[in-house]
Specification:
The protein is of the alpha+beta class. It has two domains: 30 residues; 152 residues, OB fold (Dihydrolipoamide Acetyltransferase, E2P) (Beta Barrel), CATH 2.40.50.90. The chain is 38% helix and 18% strand. Strands 1-2-3-6-5 form a five-stranded mixed beta barrel. Strands 4-7 form a two-stranded antiparallel ribbon.
């Protein structure tokens, strides 16, 4: 593809993203806040779309090192990354060690506006807090959960049962531990990470 073709492709992608955000904002602004019927129909729409793996959604916000918010047609949805546990910035006992660094690192990894969600039947759709459970990938194919482990900003975490990407996640964590990266560095928390037994 020549440079002109690449330029046209890039402009087209940018315009599509801008148009998507504009439509998203209009739909959110038009949605009635107290209409129970509208909320029920909105929930059904989300349920149908959410169960499809491999769909990209706009990344709205990073909550912490293992949770993001993505946009849907008329709403947003919290998504918990499968297979990792990051230090909590809003823990009842105060922020856990390395929580801010973990959150900031996920923000740096997820700079672009779109993420693709992949679900794992072995984990169910939602956790006990009502967050979607998914693997989250960037447009370049970077698996955010695995990268957080490899860089030492989260720990491997098995929910109810083994999950599809568990072996590669455990390997990424072992490598970070061996290299003493991130929260595994001996001088970071002066103890084992907050969530580690």
């Amino acid at each position: 593809m020549n440079k002109i073709g690449q330029g046209i492709l890039i402009i087209s992608v940018i315009l599509n993203v801008v148009l998507f955000y504009e439509l998203l904002e209009r739909n959110v602004a038009l949605a009635p806040e107290d209409d129970a019927v509208s909320e029920e129909s909105e929930s059904v729409t989300i349920e149908k779309k959410v169960h499809e793996s491999g769909i990209s959604y706009p990344l709205m916000r990073i909550v912490d090192g293992d949770t993001i918010i993505v946009g849907f047609e008329n709403a947003t949805e919290y998504v918990r990354l499968i297979g990792i546990d990051a230090p909590e910035p809003n823990d009842p006992g105060g922020p856990q060690c390395y929580a801010q660094e973990s959150t900031t690192h996920l923000q740096e990894l997820a700079r672009t506006g779109l993420v693709t969600l992949y679900f794992d039947e072995s984990q169910g759709m939602y956790d006990s807090y009502g967050r979607l459970l998914a693997y989250v990938e960037m447009p370049d194919g970077t698996d955010l959960g695995k990268q957080m482990l490899a860089d030492g900003y989260a720990q491997e975490f098995t929910y109810h049962s083994a999950y599809e990407r568990q072996a590669s996640y455990m390997s990424a964590e072992a490598e970070a531990l061996e290299k003493e990266q991130g929260l595994w560095a001996p001088d970071v928390c002066n103890t084992t990470p907050a969530n580690q037994p």
